[in-house]
UniProtKB/TrEMBL annotation:
Family: Belongs to the LysR transcriptional regulatory family.
GO molecular function: DNA binding; DNA-binding transcription factor activity
Annotated InterPro entries: HTH-type_LysR_regulators (IPR050950), LysR_HTH_N (IPR000847), LysR_subst-bd (IPR005119), WH-like_DNA-bd_sf (IPR036388), WH_DNA-bd_sf (IPR036390)
GO cellular component entries: cytosol
Organism: Paenibacillus whitsoniae
Domain HTH lysR-type: 1-58
Keywords: DNA-binding, Transcription, Transcription regulation
Protein name, entry field: LysR family transcriptional regulator
Family matches, as Pfam families: HTH_1, LysR_substrate
Amino acid sequence: MELTQLEYFLEVARTEHLTRAAESLSITQPALSHSIAKLEDELGVPLFERKGRNLHINRYGTMFAKRVEKILQEVKQSKQELEEYANPDSGTIHLAYLNILGVDLIPNLVRKYQLANPKITFELTQGDKGTIVEQVENGLSDLLITSERPVSDHYEWIPIQSMPLYLVVYADHPLAERSSISLKEITGEPFVALKHNCSLRDSLLTRVHHMNFTLSTSYDAEDLPTVAGFVSAGLGVSVLPKTAGLILNGLHWIEIQEEGWKWEVGLHLKKDRFLSPAAQQFVSYIKQREINTEYNK
């Protein structure tokens, strides 16, 4: 059963005349007759009583017509909703992002974009690395803002901002008065690390490995705010970006002397994923922005 068959049926039911219905639909009368006959065969009941080219809708046709009218109206409304949903000026953007980015970056980004595009709405999902990647993989979100570059060629990475990473220590730590430090100096220090579902963890481990020294992990925290809290309580040292949500009382931030200790945040999207015009326009907006080095820019 096809939508065109249902549309043809309703027009014949309205006119109760094959020739007039065919003219209204801009198809041939034999083609219309064939469509109605095929529909009746599929339903297993006649929908009209025939008298030459005149047809009179019967009780089966009347019952069916009520349902078809509702179906076609629903289809029409759904098409309209989808058009509005995907409209680049008034559509909806499905965006997933890391929890920590919801403190500052995402609210500011959404606010600035909506000031220029007031009819756009966002469907937002936040979570740890595993949760938000799964959102994109399952098609529940179109775009992902995270701090880990994709390793697969099937994804595109668009940088949004880059921030320096710092060694963070608690107020009474012997290193608290230092303004800069080589990370090799913290060998043997209790280190507050991150669990597997935090994207900064892998980056830290890779850098430490390249510097040929080891960290003495004291705790594995679930997320960056927890790391900051543990360090502030004197339970170890760690490496963090100096960003909203992590700047706690009692923390001292020490510049890292080695180069390359940066925390990069970017837009992560599948290259073969269909993007609505609204999402495409947002991606273009991100590409046109200069990479910010501070959260509040």
